[in-house]
Design goal:
alpha+beta; 3 domains; five-stranded antiparallel sheet
Length: 209
Amino acid sequence: MASSAILKRQRRAQQRKQAVVSKRQLELVESTIGARARRAAAMPIRVCALHGQLVDGAVDGGIASVVLARGRTPDYATAAIFLVDTFCLGVKDVIVQEFEADQLAFLIESMAEVSPVTELEPSYARKLLREAAAWGASIGFKPHRDFVAAEQLFGDVRAEACEAVFTFGKDGKPFYMPGPTETRAQVRQRLAHLLARFGPDGFDHMVEV
């Protein structure tokens, strides 16, 4: 009898432990970028904008950011910020974050102090991101690891609804510009990849200082 009671207590303890583990696993899944983006995708779009300039389908200077924010009310939104390098790397960085209205407004105002911020049609924004990611991948640079998950924030927005034509590269070939967050090892690796793939005359790059 005693041994049976001990076994029952051990089983109950194991079940409680498994329940706690399962709850934590569910919480982790629900907090992932993809899960947050999918939940917010059903909410109204509060911001869809480009930080940078597009001239005849090309990003002036090669670097721009696309900001997409959705929220059930104007007071709080889930925003995705995609850093795009149209000269070489495609979708270079992705951030997904929750913002209160004043925080999001401050972010947009801060961006506008550096370069223009203009409203975008969501289909235009999604097409730009998808084509930038595809172009970067076509020359050997995969989009940022969170791109696919974060892109779900667009929900049912169709890139195919946009007829704009975008231009990538500079003067018809990749132009690599090392960013301030890239390590020297990353810079060397990317330059070596471009050299091996395109040869010394098949790409350009900014001299690292």
